[in-house]
């Protein structure tokens, strides 16, 4: 007996013979069939056995047989069928076709599952519409898609779309149940297993575990992590994104390798975006390009992931010792604790200049955080066990031309590659398909034709490949692009570009004008137009300032040019002066209603502040280093950056004499802050600044209190304690306020009470010491709360401190006063 194939359908090889719809021999074994004679081979790509009732040998109506002769490609005029993977080639194993075209063997395991030849147009249009809607995060389309799947239960692409939609909506369990229904239906009706795409999706669903997956596009919650929105379109690399997406499900460390300018950073972010919804721990980007000290890599990653050093304070030596007993002092320890959250992706970007430190940190984190996956970008492998290397190849010429067309049209409206295809192809080819180089070329289209650009590139490549060139060829090629761009600048633009290389993490316009000169505004605008400087809008609307940064390769090139010009010392001095002043004038704002804005400002410029401190230490400029470090002491305290503060204080202390070495110079009254005026400092102000940096270092040693119990340390503590007399005005302010800490460590608690009382009396008598009074009252409340007979005094001090902090608009102080009042009332 035979089953008719149905009506005449177009054969994918162009055959319209009725024989395509003639007779199909019944399968010789379950789920497979043999090619038959007398018909077009195009209809034998893969046939399934006639449907039968599960568990029986009964045969349904003959006309229900399925002939899978359609190629599965969308009809002309419609887009590709929505899927998370790019369309694959129609066939991977072939047998000769009667129509003269190869076709897949019906028994080939790689033969694709295709949509039936008689697929209604409305059906495919509906699936495409649902796919587009779900890709945009519109979960409301899911019920209608489910109904469509129920109407066509054997359509695997449609079922795949539904399972992906359930996964993206956080309904993993439902997706697994739906897969099981599809698998059972295919086995019962067609006697076959789900196709490779469904099986791959099933494995991915199993890997998600029992936890919920945040829904995409719901608009009800922000994604976890710090990935920023990209400002330009992403051209090509669809296959690379899908490959990396698969790599991240099978390997815990994936490193994107390639030359500078190959697009590793952007590709890593685009690939991470595709898996973001499946990661409860989020996607976190740590940019290592601004880090020039390998030892600072853990701190840089800590800052990127939002981890902070935190210490809970008690009052008295025993209270502090107990509070910090379990503290994690090592930044790697804190980072490991932070990254222990389930299913988290960490992107380490630009590892090549700190590759050893990045490798050590990565290996440690992966060993200690089972739910962590790392995606790194570098010019060389990290060399960590289990690392999966994924080379980022140059763009193929068709994709490179698309990128040139897109960026060129943005630079010069009306630009079309088709107007001069030979010159455009030559540009892409000679720039090795590197996205950065192509974008720089597109920027020049504002003033040059493609032919002019191609001719100039030819000259620059010959220049860089001749003479004494010791760098790698790929670096020479990238240098040629930047050299060529450099030649198009006038002298003012070159001077600004050189000086911009001293910034770390970018800058705003006032900083650029301070370091590059008053003519920076016009030159900076030109450099932005030429794509040598990236202008980014502020992260928060309240910031109000555009940020400017150099691309990594351009920054390296500009730094070399700065060295050649002999202007580096002047540029670094201007950078140090500007950011010392920024910290100095921002510090007082941390104690009033502008506190939050001041914190944001210092955080935004923190990489530059670090660089300025590094410049001051390298120059051995004690006064600049003292002023900058003392201006950051309260910020470090508020943000709990104690370890970093201790390290910087130690560096600055080494630049000058120890003020607590015998014979000790007794402290004289100093009514002004050491940072009220910029350097130079003179007389007692300079000595007080030196004493202040030592006191700040002492306060940061709260996690090593045992180190102060040996006889030598106790002698130094007693020296510090007797250097000051009660009632000195500098004892009411930071850092002199930290003198109390030295007295406490000596164990003289009776003297400590007298000192606190005298300090508060001084604050009440001196004008302009309101914040200092609130701080002293809060500290005394914490101290008095340790004794039940002093609890009433502690409560009164806390209440008065709270009232002053609130009047001053100091939210941080208000929280501290509330904590002190709670401790007092608890007694």
TrEMBL record:
<dbReference type="InterPro" id="IPR058852">
    <property type="entry name" value="HTH_77"/>
</dbReference>
<keyword id="KW-0902">Two-component regulatory system</keyword>
<dbReference type="Pfam" id="PF25872">
    <property type="entry name" value="HTH_77"/>
</dbReference>
<dbReference type="GO" id="GO:0000160">
    <property type="term" value="P:phosphorelay signal transduction system"/>
</dbReference>
<dbReference type="Pfam" id="PF03704">
    <property type="entry name" value="BTAD"/>
</dbReference>
<dbReference type="InterPro" id="IPR027417">
    <property type="entry name" value="P-loop_NTPase"/>
</dbReference>
<feature type="domain" description="Bacterial transcriptional activator">
    <location>
        <begin position="101"/>
        <end position="206"/>
    </location>
</feature>
<feature type="compositionally biased region" description="Low complexity">
    <location>
        <begin position="91"/>
        <end position="125"/>
    </location>
</feature>
<feature type="compositionally biased region" description="Polar residues">
    <location>
        <begin position="61"/>
        <end position="71"/>
    </location>
</feature>
<protein>
    <submittedName>
        <fullName>Multidomain-containing protein family</fullName>
    </submittedName>
</protein>
<feature type="region of interest" description="Disordered">
    <location>
        <begin position="24"/>
        <end position="130"/>
    </location>
</feature>
<dbReference type="InterPro" id="IPR005158">
    <property type="entry name" value="BTAD"/>
</dbReference>
<dbReference type="InterPro" id="IPR011990">
    <property type="entry name" value="TPR-like_helical_dom_sf"/>
</dbReference>
